[in-house]
Amino acid sequence: MTTWKDFADLKAVQRLAELARSPYNLARPDSLPPERIANYKASACGFDLLYAAQRIDDNVLAALQELADEAGLLAQFQAMKSGAVMNRIIGHASEERQVLHTASRDIFSDAPLAPAATAQAKEQLARLKSFLADVDSGAVCNEHGQPFTTMLQVGIGGSDLGPRALYVALEKYRLPGRKAAFIANVDPDDAAAVLASLDLSRTLVNVVSKSGTTLETRTNEELVRTALAKAGLNPLRHMVAVTGAGSLMDDPARYLAAFHMYDYIGGRYSATSMVGGVTLGFALGYDAFIEVLRGAHEMDKAAEQPDIRANLPLLMALLGIWNRNFLGCNTVAVLPYSQALLRFPAHLQQCDMESNGKQVSRTGTPVTWKTGPIVWGEPGTNGQHAFYQLLHQGTEIVPAEFIGFRRSQHGSDITVNGTTSQQKLAANMLAQSLALAQGREHENPNKHFAGNRPSLVLIAEQLTPYAMGALLALYEHRIAFQGFCWNINSFDQEGVQLGKLLADRLLGVMAGGKELSPDAPESSLLQAAGMAA
Amino acid sequence: MTTWKDFADLKAVQRLAELARSPYNLARPDSLPPERIANYKASACGFDLLYAAQRIDDNVLAALQELADEAGLLAQFQAMKSGAVMNRIIGHASEERQVLHTASRDIFSDAPLAPAATAQAKEQLARLKSFLADVDSGAVCNEHGQPFTTMLQVGIGGSDLGPRALYVALEKYRLPGRKAAFIANVDPDDAAAVLASLDLSRTLVNVVSKSGTTLETRTNEELVRTALAKAGLNPLRHMVAVTGAGSLMDDPARYLAAFHMYDYIGGRYSATSMVGGVTLGFALGYDAFIEVLRGAHEMDKAAEQPDIRANLPLLMALLGIWNRNFLGCNTVAVLPYSQALLRFPAHLQQCDMESNGKQVSRTGTPVTWKTGPIVWGEPGTNGQHAFYQLLHQGTEIVPAEFIGFRRSQHGSDITVNGTTSQQKLAANMLAQSLALAQGREHENPNKHFAGNRPSLVLIAEQLTPYAMGALLALYEHRIAFQGFCWNINSFDQEGVQLGKLLADRLLGVMAGGKELSPDAPESSLLQAAGMAA
């Protein structure tokens, strides 16, 4: 196994700290000459990464390469893809699991890196293909012999955010007469509003929970079963499950079909497993889902490049570390210039912050360096008319990641003032990157822009299933590379446990089954909130 | 006029800096005794604010009161509501405008604070009432005499985010057969997807732009007009406008009706003017919109309380300043435990970050203190399964603002394990607040929670139009009070101008009308992005 080194002990970290005393000044005149813009560009899987507007130069890039090499980032990545137990804390009880989301799309070669996991993925894909063929043919249909038109995914966290982000991104590619809907939150208003908008008689419900015991999902499943029963529908004709083999939900007496998910794929990395596959396959077609897998798989391979300047995920990881640990930025804004990517920042929030919002190293010692930043964002030109004020003139520096496309999905566009809407969209994105970098001198201090604010641009031809798969994997690996570099376990989530435990205690009190001292904060808080029994 | 003092010059700021050397430790055993939880509670307009889980004690509260008094926050607030020119930078060219969003709802008393503005608001409301009555009666109808069912709002920034957030929050209260839709982004895919989902023959289009010249809105209006024409529909029967009196859009030859908005209400504060009123009135009914105004107005009055412990917006403003300027937190997470508030964080991002993401004081000098934080968030239990990991165990401290309700909107709920979904939702919210504050000792360092992370809870009975109005105004005034305290102009947005200017330059090149030196960054960037002509 690769030796894991603490971030603070790396020689390259010292070198970078020295370089960070005088980082590249983007606001200097001529800071963006043509050769810099042309050279600071990397490409993979149809995406171009333009990073001239980062506060770096060739010396910083060389030191970041040293960092990658010294920390053994690629070796760790290969170990992960090959089935090493990367989800662990040495010397303490931990999940002790493999991390094999890449295996779920390593289905295109004859020699997959983790053959057993890929064989399981292929088996589930074959079952999905056959099930979807039965839906298409009408062999699977409702009580009246009518075809299903809607799949309602019931899940939360990783069983919701990734699949939903992908579905929203790719809605344009829906099969005729097919759509998907989602219920996640335990908020009864959410479920009620979604259920009210659907024709339940034509809906397949897809309940997703690895353990089969997730509180929110179980509650929402009951709500949906009640609604089906009220509508005189037989749940057994309408319910499928995605769950762990042998879980409470892996039960043919309760579900039309149960597809399997595995312990070696964490929730937030599971969009390319059956967790995303069943709903995306239903709504977009099996072939479109395979295109998502192909895009992700090709990015998985592109992430093996040892030269950081040719490796998009690794380069983005290292630029992020430069901004986070050396320039002191504690947030990252992800700003897609594509309304279809509306929910992609929410997926990234989970994937990044749940992975790298950690306080102990993989040897169980408290970290003495900063780990994962706060990730936030909204689609582009909306944001321009909103929070960009702070990006340009606020007292915080926010590294921005712009994502855009040269062509629209729908192709219905209009020319106003000599340019199409899609051209306006891309022009705005590039203009923001320039404005953040260069700023503007002005005699009126309120119209002065200091500039020197870093950003990068990711641009591809069109947001297709393939591109979406590649983009998903690009960010997954950026996150994993950062976690490897910070020497933290990016694959567990112990930090979400305490809240669950306290919620259970409060619910015990509310249900009347549990007595608490009146002096306990739980009692006082329920009282103050007007929620005491 | 009140004298405006620089934040750094306030005596209370020195006092608070001293107190910040040993802030209250929420993770100490017994840090949350019953009397603290009961005492650190304030109420207004049906909302309870629980703030025991802030890192404060009575000394800090006293110093925050001094800060409010010394900076004259209430006097400035009253001046704002009474029509003082608060949107200005002294000694430099600036917008020089009144700030009178409160006048748009000061319609319930006989002696409004800004009578002329309130008279204009009442006039527009009367016109809206009459127009909506014509829609109800069928006097306004489509080419075939059918009633309109949908209003499509075309706007961007403040003409979109606030009205959309309110509509999503209050969809439960829609009139039978009525709904709203929104197009904002210049992304042609967004417009295409929205238009494809509507029956245009039954749709009224509401174009919102104060100047009548906003690029995105103009482009989207053209797109919609083209779609109407293609569907054989007469735009004059389908288009209304909300715009400045005398603007290009204030044109009876092009719109069925034009409602007016005024320079003294900024976009991000305009949801309670006709900018929100026309669409909300159409979809929810005129009376429901008046209820929104009533809630907002009552919060406007509650914000006049001189005792900070009885003034919700002022107290939240000061607690935010404590966290921002004295405890060093540069972000705020707004976490509604209500799916209906899905878009409220996006509205707040605009309202807060565009208002207070500023670098110069109201006398035109660069600030030497931190101004507006980064505001971000997602609905509650979804977030718990996502980014809460970082909130609990990350290396950044994120003050959290929880918003919840005791009763659901829909009232359709289900009991599982002895509690309803709504109870689970509220219990989870309170549990998170406790977990952040108290943390947990654990021998396994990965299961250890340091705690001592501040949060507050806002809770009300139910998310009604009245409650939504009050919540909107609560945050508007929190933002204004903070801006007053930081001595910045919260009501302009010069920081969004440079990006627009550079986008125009790039579009000029793309349209072929403008020549740039091949060495200009604009040219190289277009080339690198594969967007050069």
Give a nutshell description of this structure.
2 copies of one chain form a homodimer. By secondary structure, chain A is of the alpha/beta class.
Question: What secondary-structure arrangement, pairings included, does this model have?
Answer:
Two copies of one chain form a homodimer.
Chain A: H1 11-19, H2 34-39, E1 41-44, E2 47-50, H3 58-70, H4 73-81, H5 115-137, E3 150-154, H6 161-170, E4 179-183, H7 188-196, E5 203-209, H8 215-230, H9 235-238, E6 239-244, E7 257-261, H10 274-284, H11 286-302, H12 312-326, E8 331-336, H13 344-356, E9 374-376, H14 380-384, H15 388-393, E10 400-405, E11 415-416, E12 419-420, H16 421-438, E13 455-460, H17 465-486, H18 497-510, H19 521-528
Helix pairs in contact in A: 1-3, 3-12, 4-17, 5-10, 6-10, 6-13, 10-11, 11-17, 12-17, 13-17
Structure keywords:
533 residues, 43% helix, homodimer, 6-stranded mixed sheet, globular
